[in-house]
Amino acid sequence: MNKLIVVTGGTRGIGRAVIETFARQGFDVATCARQQPALDQLKRDVEQAHGVTVYTQPADLADRAQVKSFSAFINALQRPVDVLVNNAGFFVPGQIIAEPDGVLESMINANLYSAYNMTRGLIGNMQQHASGHIFNLCSIASFMAYPNGGSYAISKFALLGFSKCLREELKTTGIRVTAIMPGATRTESWDGTSLPDERFMKSEDVAEAIYSAYALSGRSVVEEIIIRPQLGDL
After folding, report:
1. Long-range pairs of 32-40 with CB within 8 A, sequence gap ≥ 24
2. Residue among 29, 32, 18 nearest 61 (CA)
3. Which spans of this chain does the record mark as coiled coil (predicted)?
């Protein structure tokens, strides 16, 4: 049986690139996104291109109830979860002192609580098999403050802290934990920018770094990966 990777927010950007990368290596895929048509298209594309099975369920992971529903969907497959990539989240620029009320709460729900609750929902599966690899999509903003980072940076600082704590808790279980901290990556978040594509990293490069970390033997773990554009941060 193929191995199984779970990717949250998998229909575009880094999530889509991760799915394509692992599917090329023969992984079956389980993923979610908010829009069913995008999930249907992803399933058709990946299954046709790579001959693997793609399981999908629509879910907004900023909503805890929908995280629990998606976790239950995965567990009902009764398959070992070999890789979990907590990728769901979003970015809104702004200043802490000026951004609208509620921005922090929405960022924490989408960028932190989604990973926290998704991990808790699937960790029993991994513990049962004493294996698995959890990747949390953090950010350069997880360790470096910058103008207009606002609540996004707060949420990503917290996600890195979550990753560090999780790594300590799971050291002796056979489950690996890696925090991924990419710089500016050319995804839909940057649509409308006047900057050339060459100024950004490719989503595929982040995905390849994730696969390379996974491919190490179980005796080793890459705890953190920092990836920046060659010309530096934006």
Report:
1. 32/8, 32/56, 32/57, 32/58, 32/59, 32/61, 32/70, 32/88, 33/9, 33/58, 33/59, 34/58, 34/59, 34/60, 35/11, 38/11, 38/12, 39/11
2. 32
3. none
Pick the CATH number of 4-227 from 1.10.10.10, 3.40.50.880, 3.40.50.720, 3.30.700.20: 3.40.50.720
Tell me which residues are annotated as active site: 152
How many CA atoms are closer than 13 Å to the CA of 91, on its beta-carbon side?
21
pLDDT-derived band at 5 (thresholds 50, 70, 90) equals: very high
Residue linked to tokens 């910058």: 146
- Cα–Cα distances in Å, from 169 out to 69, 102, 119, 129? 25, 32, 13, 16
> How far is residue 6 from each of residues 111, 116, 152, 171, measured CA to CA in Å?
17, 15, 24, 21
Q: What is the DSSP letter of 174?
A: T
Mean pLDDT is highest, among 36-50, 137-151, 173-187, for 36-50
Radius of gyration of the chain measured on its C-alpha atoms: 17
Extended strands (E) in 77-208? 83-86, 133-137, 176-182
Return the domain boundaries, the chain.
Answer: 4-227
Q: Judge if pTM exceeds 0.70.
A: yes
At 98-130, the pLDDT tens digits run: 999 999 999 999 999 999 999 999 999 999 999
Tokens of 61: 């992971």
